[in-house]
Amino acid sequence: MARRTKIYEGKAKTLFEGPEPGTIVQYFKDDATAFNAEKKDVIEGKGVLNNMLSEYFMNGLTAIGVPNHFIKRLNMREQLVRACEIIPLEVIVRNTAAGSMSKRLGIEEGTALPRPIVEYCYKDDSLGDPLVSEEHIAAFGWASQQDMDDILSLALRVNDFMSGVMYGVGIKLVDFKIEIGRVYEGDFQRLIVADEISPDSCRLWDMETGQKLDKDVFRRDLGSLTDAYSEVAKRLGVMPKGATPMKPTLIN
After folding, report:
1. Which of 14, 85, 181, 200 is the most exposed place for a label (fewest CB within 10 A)?
2. Is the pTM of this model over 0.85?
């Protein structure tokens, strides 16, 4: 489709004005970053895979009644999404100790948590997206108490859905990150899941071998990121066996 006016460019995606008011075109790049963009590379085919996988997960959420910004996939790298006001928080749900939680709390990576733990980080790359409490969120007016109740509910519903989907294909959902947006319908506001859900924003481990199938492959130099993401796509039936992210056959 014809290139539109750029609204915003992030580390993994670029946003353009959509064809209709209230819409945005979200373009998935091949750029990979880690450690707050201190480590960078371009991984051919990553954007195609994330576009396909995010479409799959967002459609699944829609099917079970979880509101989100996804409208439709436009092509291999772009999808049409609903414009929304992003709440400046990263919402993290953890089922198993890993990454920063293991370092912060001295919990061995791979330890099952007694229940899903929801954490919040303030979205600011220059600060390293610091962990914040609900007290910070309320004091600085980033979200109301009703918003926080709704965010928690959305996060846990996404966790239930994602955990079940991944379990069905032999993958453990260790943790994931989502963003939440506000949309206004007349005088009423509601919250929706926004941004993306992909291996870029999840930790995914093979249930039998423990093999990492997420961005930790890039963070920790564990092999081919494209191969890891392709494995997830193939298990979910998003990309047939024999296809590649450079020459994929998409399943509608």
Report:
1. 85
2. yes
